[in-house]
Each structure stands twice: as structure tokens, then as C-alpha cells.
Amino acid sequence: MGSLLALLSYAKAASRTCQHVKGAYGDVITVSSLSQVPDALLGEMEIPLLSRTVAALLALLFIRRLLRRYLEYRSNKAFGDRHGCLPTSMLKNEMPLGLDRLKQIFDADADSRLMELFLMHFRMWGNTLEQVFLAAQAFGTIDPINLEAMLSTKLKDFGMGPRRQTTFPFFGDGIFTQDGPDWKHSRELLRPQFSHKQYQDLEIFREHVDNLIDNIPTNGGIVDLQPLFFRLTLDTTTAFLFGKSVCSLVGAGTSAGKTDFAEAFDTAQSYVAKRLRLLDLYWLIGGKEFRDSCAIVYKFMDEIIDRGLDLGETDDGQERHSRYVFLDVVAKDSRNRTALRQQMIDILVAGRDTTALRHPRVLTKLREEISSVVGGTSEMKRADLHKMAYLNNVLKESKSNGKIPNWERRTHLLIKGIALRLYPSVPVNVRTAQRTTFLPTGGGADGLSPVLIPSGANVAYSVYSMHRRPDFYGEDAEDFRPERWEEDLGLFRDETTSKWGYLPFNGGPRICLGMDFALTEAAYAVVRILQRFPIVKMPPDEVRVKTGKERQTMTLVLSATDGCKVQFG
Predict the structure, then answer these.
(1) Can you tell me which residues bind heme (predicted)?
(2) 410 shares a domain with 338
């Protein structure tokens, strides 16, 4: 009561001192005597009022959110009912927000077993599944029918989603983060670069494969091929795209700057991959190491771009204009250094692969075929590589019985001596629903009904796991056996499965433009290495690990954690 009387007393005094002051925007009331009110009394007045206001606002926001969620639920349910959608298998969480799944993923990643974990999930819960992860609804699938929908027939329903802001510090605004008109524009710039006539004579590969061979010891020494093949890809890709190679294989042991670039490239990719796994919480992953790695990559790429642009403006660049050079065309389209750099980084990520030879039985058959087709000469053309049927089974997984006319759909590289069917360079990919839509199959007890995909939900598809399905590739699906492609595989049971059940280079409009270029590079490198070295084998002290159980590093691409050590003689 005393506080109330004091308040009335002060209010009365304050009212006598109110003044009208003419301001620039009209009358302004000043209450000068309010300065006489004790702070404690003001606090007594303000805190309850502020608390009630905040509480009311929070309640309104909560009610608004509930109402919006309810309306979305009603709308989605009606949509699902119209299309006959049924729930799919639910990956159960033991902790709130799926934090146990997050821990499981990071633990598996730290142990280089992430792909093994994902494969286990699909084998336990089915070919299409759902989970709540960090409070977000997410789905996974390895069903070719669903992949056809996401990547082709319902392409407009699925996009890159939040990938752009998640990956922007490294990728910027390049072809892998773009959607719509921007993506189409970048794609059209690149398409002529990968025309077969650009590398029919294999000249673009010859010098760099020779440089690779020069880095391999001939006295029975052991070499890790993985970093050498990264350099090979870097050299051929820069020569192909920029008109001039960085020649990282020349003096490979002493080129510190190029080594720094390769390490920074891997580190930056690793951070980007972890950011992608955290979905909307991607901003938790970053820091100085990530920024420094991006800066090293940018500096290296900028030097290449400057050199390429300078070369294009001099007489020395005349020879390269006999063919399409991506840097020249992009430079005409945009002289902005950042735009050029981001397009180049995107293409280099796609161009990376690790190719190796560690299966004696396969090597023997390959040597016999190479000898019969080209002998010991390095003077061969792309057409000569296509004549090698067994090489096509090993490198391209091509099938000659005519069930799939387009052999390029069934092509692969060797990774650690095992086909890209088993180790695709991009083993997991994600799309985000642009609007409420559905996957054609995976719902219901029999898994044959459509599955509702709400707007904003992420759908992951694992090519790695799909390529290991026994119903497609046989009970020995995890074994490296090129001869399987001469058999009547379950993969060939219908058109959709045969086309979408094997996707080492993605599919639909976003299929990898550099597919044939990568395959030709791999085939030529394999032929030249086998011509040069009569002995290629695993080191004697290295234990062969069962396929799929070796340690794998998953950044944006897949590589062998322990490298690819091979003995030559």
C-alpha cells in the first residue's frame, strides 16, 4: 500500500512538470520530474509489465507456430491421402533430437567407418527409411525407382536446398551449389569442354601419365599411389580446363606449395562434409583451420587463373585456341576472379579419383589384352581403349549382351583395385524437397506404396549402399569380380532398375559432364602403367582387408584412409 501511495504522489508531481516542446516532427512531451522517481520504484513498476508483455508475446508466437504446424499437417495429410502415401520404416532414436544418431555418425567418421554404418542402416531398416535428426524430418533411399523420381521425373520437386550457404565458404557460387537458370548457364559453359573430340588422341593425358610413371620407383620400391593420382587429376584437369597444367607431378617430392594446396583441398572438403551432416546447425563447424585451408586453395587457384588469363592475351596462347578452353570462355562470360575461382574449384572436386591395381588375376588378363590390342606403344587413341573388352569390364563395367545399349551408364574406375561400383567417388548425395511431394515407393508394410516428403525435408540417396544390393549384383555383391557384368544380373530385370540402379556419375540432367573424360584418363593410365611395369603387386607386409571393411575417408568424395600402397618392379 505504501508503494502505491508513493507512486501516486510522484505521478502527481510529475504531471505538474510535463511540458510541450515543439520538435522537428511535431509536439514532444517531456517529463523532467520523472528523474526524481527512485530507481527501485521504477524497477518495481517496469519488471512486472515487461514480464507480462514478453510472456504474452511468447505465448502468441507459440500458438502461431502450433497453428501453422497444424495447418501444414492437415495439408500434408490431405496430399498424402490423395496420392496413397503410407509411412516408411522409421529409424528409431534413443535420445532427444536424434543426438544419439549424431554421435554415432561422428564416431563412425572418426573411425573411418561411415559408409559401413550407412550400409548397416539400410540393411536393417529397408531400402527407404525415415528419421528425425536434429528436430528435422529426413529420409534415405537406395531404391532406383525413387532415384529416378528425384533426379529426373520429379526433378523440379527437389533442389539443392540449404547446401549453398553450408558450402559457400569453400565452393562459393559454382555449378554444384546452383539451381535453376544459374545452374543451366554454368552447365552450358562446361558442356563443349567435355566433347569427345577434345581428347580423342589422348595427348591431353600423355605427358601427365608419363610424369606419374617417373614418380614410381623401378627397383621394387613401394609407393602410395593415392596422392600421385590426385596430382595426375590436378594436372590433367588444369591442362584441360585452363589450357596449361600446373604440372604438380614434376618434382612431386619437392613442390611444397602444391603439397600445401592438396592438403588444404582435403581439409576444406572435410569441413564442408561435416557442415553438411549438421543440417541447419552447420555454422557450428568452421574456425581458423577451415578458413586458412580455404585461403590456401583460393590463393593457388587465383595464381592459375591469372596465369591462364595472361596466356590467353599473348601470342603464346595461340595453340590452345585450336580447341575449346573453359577458362577462356568463362573469362569472356565473367572477368570476376571469384566467379572464375569457384567454377574451377567445383570442377576439380568432380575430377578427383584414386586409381590402383592390386588384383593379380585381373592384372594378368589385362596385360594379355593390352598386349594383343596395342602392344607396348604409347601411341594409342581413345578408340583403341574401347577395343579392350576386358578393360571395359574392369574399368567401365560394360556388358556386351546388349541389355543396356548405352555402355557409359555402367562404367567405372578402379579404386584401390576395386570397381567404382563398390567405391563411387561421391557415395552419398542429398536433395531437399522444394515443395510437398512424394517418393513413388518405400511406404507401407510391403514397401511398395508412395512415401510423403514434406516441403523442406532432406532426402539422402546412397549410391555406395545401392551398388552393394545382393538382389541387383548377386550374393557376392561386395566382391570385386569384373566377370559379373557378363552374367544375367538382377540389375537388368527392368529398364528403370538397369538405368538407375547403377549411378557412379549421378543421373538425369545433372549427370556428371566429365564422365567419359574421367574414364578415358583412368583407362589410359592403367594401360601405360601395365606396359611400363612387369611387376605390380601388394607390398608383402600389407594384409588384404575384406572389401568394405577397409578404413575409408569420407569428405565430399571417398578415398582410402590408409592410402593405396603398391610395389612395382
Answers:
(1) 512
(2) no
